[in-house]
Amino acid sequence: MSQFNLIRILHDRGLISHITNEDNLNKLIQNNSISLYCGFDPTEESLHIGHLLPLITLKRFQMAGHKPIVLIGGATSLIGDPSFKKKEREFNSSNNVNIWTKKISKQISCFLDFNCSENSALLLNNNTWFKKINILSFLRKVGKYFSINTMINRSAVKQRISRTDQGISFTEFSYNLLQAYDFFILHKEHQVHLQIGGADQWGNISSGMHLVNRKTKKKVYGLTIPLLIQSNGMKFGKTESGTIWLDAKKTSPYKFYQFWINIEDSQIYYFLKMFTFVSLLEINIREKNRYINNQIINDKIFLARNMTRLVHGEEQLLAAERITEFLFLKKINHITKSDLEQLQQDGIPAIKIHKVKDLQEALVLSSLSMSRTQAKKMIFANSISINTQKINKNHIFENQDKLFGKFTLLSRGKKNHCLLCW
Q1: Average pLDDT of 187-195?
Q2: Quick check: pTM over 0.70?
């Protein structure tokens, strides 16, 4: 069916961590249109950039003619996946899960085509089948196919069992069976042959393949994608610090744009391959020429533009670029009120100002200076700016200093800023 080797492309782009029976899976998707799925538990109101890789991988399968199914874990999110978590998650209320399901479903709809005939994407919720099954029936239909010995030897479980301070509850321990049952139901009702997920899902995916095989004697497949790791070595997750959310109200488009601008040089071409649909040929040429005329900086901008456009659209990309020019290139003419509201949200430090005597006091309140004496020295050293304009004497704030009657950008040098919000 496919005119190109999708598995080879995924390998070349660094999108495969684990894969089962690669040759057989490759033959299957080369000659047939298959259904595949990936699950997302609504344990927060937004997805984050760690979810982009499975979504983009689903999109690649859809572009190759296959049918992607997104499974929202309306039931499993009430339990919480323990995979490689240091401690048990706090339980979420059913009401929150329902609200978060709607928000996450809306986000997902932006990445896949749900109206393209035979391989249109499908959005399902596992609460549909779990609310119909009782515990005795589940244990008889599912539990009997799993060995405790095998389950406790899975790395995600073993890691928790070995901890004397936390351990693992039976509730969390059962999550593996719930996800396995998802795969069985989707195979039975939607002919799903492949489950994809992050590398930390390998144990859960393996259990699903095992259950399908035991109950149907059919062979299904699993594929995992490398986890996106932060600079501190932690994975990007909803419960981790430093999360970059896809919801503009939780992470502004400007901050999202700046995340990609500020990645390490060694990650640029790795991320271009994984996250974008730019051809491998173009990426390889860019990497080869990275040290010519500061090309590496241009490639970071290229990546940031691609990712911000993908997640937030062209309009918000332009806003992020306006804010960047305002802060770093001192271009103030095209800045908008909504741009400054993004800065107030999370772009730079911001403080609310009611009354302030002068510039020296503002520098101290904004933590750009430790004292009025130091602030005075900075001002006379010509290192302080108000709304991108250099100030070399003490200054009393006036209405003309308040952009849109509300905001004043206070800067020390090129990189230290604070937004005064009147």
Answers
A1: 98
A2: yes
